[in-house]
Each structure stands twice: as structure tokens, then as C-alpha cells.
Write a structure and sequence with these properties.
about 375 residues; alpha/beta; 17 helices; globular
């Protein structure tokens, strides 16, 4: 198989980037893939980070202006993508969709014999274009675009069902959950020495969070819950690793609550270095997520051998057993506090989670990035053989 992988997230700094990189790298381990190509290549990729001013944020939030941004986004890279397809003549193209699904129909029209597949983590109308004018019209266009695909790979059933609705086809719309790189994420011995190396207080009980600091992830709620817990448990420390649009709000709340000595904001950390930080945590937190998500950080937390507080969403409920593999919480502040207290007060529970051999075997067998890539490639090859 000759595969062209089209991902605008490959050089980004969020979870979609990790998924892209791990998928693409693991294609080298799959015999069915004879040639692989990445588009756009880094040298032609002009995306850059900007810190939006309040005025820019306001303008970008205007519903009619979002229509302009959406159509503009769907023209990015299209001409060069067509040139790349004509040049290398792949058997299949796999889009990692951000909000560019209108390009599917254009590529199918230009290359009718090309097997077009998509990798879908969610709908742009849940987050970046949630305020777009005539939203129902664009949601309909999204579904129609994926109906044109030969295969669609979703990370959760909820995402698939919400997007495809009555057009769902089990042979075309396939759920493949995220995974972890077990060569990167694993337990490390000598945690005191590791804490000293990374500048953590060896006498603190560390609650850790890793991820993009989006508003919907309710990190401010976590900070407020942590403040309440520090009134009861004096040796607690909260470590937050990541960057994102909610950072200023989080900093302001930390300062308001006089928690600057108790909360460590590490900022963005290279993904290759995250495992060492995880191994300094006493427990890991991912307390809130949208219902359609399948948070890859949970797989990484668990691979590192950590007790985990996880969000009560369908993909977590389907894959993991509550109070056996991890502890599931609602995203209300009282729920988060009660469940964190349960983990803080119960070292036996934390130890049971960390030493869960059945969970470790399940991760190794079903939830690695190699398995994720294999599952996708097998389905594409089956489509090519039809």
C-alpha cells in the first residue's frame, strides 16, 4: 500500500499532534505499508502560534465572521495537496480532520479512484466553530462530507453517532480508540531522586494534570477544589503541565486564592520528557472532558503506573472499570473533591490501581499506537481489496 497522510496537526502542540506523530511513525512497523508520505511537509507548513488579543478573539467569535474563517480554512493546502496526489499517485489518502472536511468531496471528484479515509477526533462545531452562523446547515454539510469518504475512523462511539446520525454505516464508520506509546510511558524506580532531579519537593503529595489548557477542561474548577483540599491536607502540591487559551484565567485564580506556593505551572513540556514528570506524581488527574472525547492522556497516565482520576464520559466507561482500573468522577466541584479525597486517604486503592496487571496487559494488547495504526491500515487494505 502507498499511503498519503494529510495532517495539519503534525507540527502542532496538542493531542492531535501526538496522535498524528505516533500513527505516522508506527506505519514503519506495518508490512502492508510499502510507501508512506506526509502532507504538508514541515518546510511548507506556515502555521504559527499567536497570542490573540481581546479584539481578535472578539472578532473571531462573531458568528458570521466564523463562516468566512471556515471556508478559508477549507481552502488551505488544497491546490498543493492535489499536486502531491498527482505526483505520488497513492492508493489511499488519510485525512486527519481539523475542520477541513469540505476538501473530501473535492478530492473525491478530482481523483475518483483514490480511497479517501478520515481520522476524526470530534466536530469543529463543538469547539472552534461552535458559534458559527447557520450552524445546522454546516453540521449537515459535515455529515454529507463523511458520507463521501470510503472509511471514517472515529475515537469514540459518541463522536461517530453525533456526527453521522442516521447516516451511520458500520462498515464505513469505525471506532478505534486512542492509545499510548509504552516505550515512552512506563513506571520509573527511584521516585525521590527523580523529584529532586526535576525540582519537585520530595515531601509533597503531588496531584498532577497534563494537557492543553482549554476552557472546557475546567482547570479553574480543579484549582478551586485543590484550594479546599489544602485546608485539610497541608502537604499537597498541584502540578499543571501544558499551555493553552485558559492559562491567564488559571494564573489569575491561583493568585486570587494565594496558591502560588502550592501550584506549579510547568508550561509546555516536550512530549518525550513527560514520563519523568508523571513519575513524580502521586496521582494523575483528568477530571473533565467532552462526552465525545477519548482522552489519550489517560492511557499515558495508566501506562506510567499512576492511580488516575478520570472523567465520567462514555469512552472511559467503555474501556475501563471504575474502582478497578481507575476512579471515575463527575465534573462538578463536589464530585472532584470527594473523589480526590478518596484517593488521597486510601493508599491501598492507589496501590491497587498502580499494580493492576490485567490493566497493563490490556494496554499492551489493545491500546498502543502500534495497535491503533494496525487497526486503521487493515481496514484500509480491506477497502483496497474490494
Amino acid at each position: 500500500m502507498k499511503l498519503l497522510y494529510y495532517s495539519t496537526s503534525f507540527y502542532a502542540s496538542h493531542g492531535g499532534s501526538i496522535q498524528s506523530i505516533e500513527f505516522y511513525n508506527n506505519l514503519d512497523n506495518i508490512e502492508l505499508v510499502e510507501e508512506k508520505y506526509l502532507f504538508p511537509p514541515e518546510r511548507n507548513f506556515n502555521a504559527r502560534k499567536t497570542s490573540d488579543s481581546r479584539i481578535r478573539k472578539f472578532i473571531k467569535g462573531i458568528s458570521l465572521f466564523q463562516i468566512f474563517l471556515f471556508y478559508r480554512r477549507n481552502n488551505f493546502h488544497l491546490k498543493k495537496l492535489k499536486q502531491k496526489i498527482s505526483e505520488i499517485r497513492p492508493d489511499s489518502i488519510l485525512f486527519q480532520i481539523d475542520s477541513n472536511f469540505l476538501q473530501i468531496k473535492r478530492i473525491k471528484k478530482a481523483f475518483p479512484n483514490l480511497v479517501v479515509c478520515t481520522q476524526i477526533n470530534g466536530s469543529p462545531f463543538d469547539e472552534p466553530f461552535k458559534n458559527i452562523a447557520f450552524k445546522e446547515y454546516f453540521i449537515k454539510k459535515q455529515k454529507e462530507a463523511y458520507e463521501k469518504s470510503d472509511l471514517n475512523f472515529f475515537v469514540s462511539e459518541i463522536s461517530r453517532n453525533n456526527i453521522m446520525q442516521s447516516s451511520f454505516e458500520i462498515s464505513r464508520d469505525i471506532v478505534i480508540p486512542n492509545g499510548a506509546n509504552l516505550d515512552k510511558f512506563f513506571p520509573i524506580k527511584g521516585k525521590e531522586q527523580l523529584k529532586q532531579k526535576l525540582g519537585y519537593d520530595v515531601n509533597k503529595f503531588i496531584l498532577g494534570y497534563v494537557g492543553t489548557l482549554d476552557f472546557h477542561k475546567k482547570i479553574v474548577d480543579l484549582v478551586e477544589v485543590f484550594h479546599e483540599l489544602t485546608e485539610i491536607y497541608k502537604d499537597l502540591q498541584l502540578v499543571i503541565i501544558g499551555d493553552g487559551p485558559a492559562l491567564d484565567q488559571i494564573i489569575n485564580r491561583i493568585e486570587d486564592l494565594e496558591l502560588t506556593d502550592n501550584v506549579i505551572l510547568k508550561g509546555w513540556v516536550n512530549h518525550n520528557d513527560i514520563n519523568e514528570h508523571l513519575n513524580c506524581f502521586n496521582l494523575a488527574i483528568h477530571h473533565s472532558a467532552q462526552t465525545y472525547m477519548n482522552p489519550l492522556k489517560i492511557f499515558e497516565y495508566l501506562a506510567a503506573g499512576l492511580p488516575v482520576l478520570a472523567p465520567d464520559i462514555p469512552s472511559v466507561r467503555r474501556i475501563f472499570q471504575n474502582e478497578i482500573d481507575l476512579l471515575i468522577t463527575g465534573d462538578k466541584k463536589k464530585d472532584i473533591k470527594d473523589n480526590l479525597e478518596m484517593l488521597i486517604q486510601n493508599p491501598q486503592m492507589r496501590e491497587r490501581f498502580s499494580r493492576n496487571k490485567n490493566l497493563k496487559r490490556s494496554l499492551e494488547k489493545n491500546y498502543t499506537w502500534k495497535r491503533y495504526a494496525e487497526n486503521i491500515i487493515i481496514k484500509i487494505q480491506q477497502k483496497l481489496n474490494q
